Amino acid sequence: MSEIRILLVDDHPVVRAGLRAMLTDFEGFTVVAEAPEGAAAIKEIQRLQALGEPLDVVLMDLQMGAGMDGVTATRAIKGMPSAPPVLILTTYDTDADILAAVEAGASGYMLKDAPPEQIRAAVQQAAAGQTALAPEVAARLLGRIRNPQPVLSPREVQLLELLATGMSNKAMSKQLFISEATVKTHLVHIYDKLGVDNRTAAIAIATQRRIIRTAG
Amino acid sequence: MSEIRILLVDDHPVVRAGLRAMLTDFEGFTVVAEAPEGAAAIKEIQRLQALGEPLDVVLMDLQMGAGMDGVTATRAIKGMPSAPPVLILTTYDTDADILAAVEAGASGYMLKDAPPEQIRAAVQQAAAGQTALAPEVAARLLGRIRNPQPVLSPREVQLLELLATGMSNKAMSKQLFISEATVKTHLVHIYDKLGVDNRTAAIAIATQRRIIRTAG
DNA sequence: CCCACAGTCAACCGTTTGGTTGATACGGCG
DNA sequence: CGCCGTATCAACCAAACGGTTGACTGTGGG
């Protein structure tokens, strides 16, 4: 069988070195290029295609410190002609990450703390055009399908964002030019949809689900 | 010059492989042992000392999925006779992490996304008994010294962390085996030190100041 | 030895928030 | 057209939270 040609995309040199060592230790895997973020990855793919040396699989991290993030990059790659399979390999398994990656066209989703041979198996499957999901991720996706999460309205997200800055109901009502009563109504709906019963828990869940993002 | 003998402590096989590859690529570095978490690391150190093959430096991650966390392990190691230098190598640079690690006796604090030669230099410095801080980390510590923020006690930080998960005062009191009255006292002190007057604002400020880290 | 501080707890009181019910208005969709 | 979801507001009550005062303990530094 021929070699599997791989592009690594991760902003951490340590992780790239680890994946390279882990994969090239075994027959049949070649890391032909690396990129620290999405835009550079796309350039690499185009460069390799121009050379007539196409890729068999892209190993993509989602969290990039700077530059194009993994989901955007995946979407861009899958929009290219003769796009290679993209296997997501990331640290976290939050709902938003997984869904966004799958929507963007990823062929699989692995967690970085997976045992090496599981990662290698996933790469092989992705290169063969198959789908590869880590067990934890698969379970989470199934759970999501079985009981779908309610969608917050734009106004509710807006409230949530103000909430996360620590504002009181009265402060939010002034900011949004609505009455406190309306603020409370919105909050009750938010708690309902997120399955919580107070504002701090709402912020915690919304942050986890990446509905809002906190100051960095 | 003689070789620098290293123990790697990280729960991710990928990261361990990356560090091993990155360090052993260069003359003078030998990875003599690895451990996925703190307790195993301590056992390794004892084993090597019993063999008369002491370590020159321990490379320690702080976030461990399971087992003994990095700060606890560092404290335990620095309590041993003829303890090796411990160099912290982690993903985040929150105040809480840095302070706790330094208090626990770490000789340095590097971020995983640092360039390879910076990491190697830090390992060399630590092995030589010197201190090594990543520029970002050093800047943060200096900023902390220049305009000192009121320091939260460990207990207060602990409360803050529970707070950020959305727990009520009653829930926190049960979790920490203290009364609600005590929880309220702590919270008042926290609000005071952070200059806020409610729990959501406290979480917002604490997140901004990187006193706590939210789910990610 | 004494002081300061962290941590613990209690009682009190006013304010804020959570939860409910009900009402109005507007837009889109079958 | 009627229904549903979104957004708006009001009134009400119970529960949680915020703020204060005061008190006790243990630990560590001057």
From TrEMBL, chains A, B:
InterPro entries noted in UniProt: CheY-like_superfamily, NreC/VraR/RcsB-like_REC, Sig_transdc_resp-reg_receiver, Tscrpt_reg_LuxR_C, WalR-like
Domain Response regulatory: 5-127
Short name of any one Pfam family annotated for the protein: GerE
Ranges for domain HTH luxR-type: 145-210
Lineage per the UniProt record: Bacteria, Bacillati, Actinomycetota, Actinomycetes, Micrococcales
A single BP term in Gene Ontology: regulation of DNA-templated transcription
Gene3D superfamilies assigned: 3.40.50.2300
Protein name stated in the entry: DNA-binding response regulator
Keywords tagged on the record: DNA-binding, Phosphoprotein, Transcription, Transcription regulation
Residues recorded as bearing 4-aspartylphosphate in the entry: 61
Species whose genome carries this gene: Arthrobacter livingstonensis
Keyword Phosphoprotein listed: yes
Molecular-function annotations in GO: DNA binding
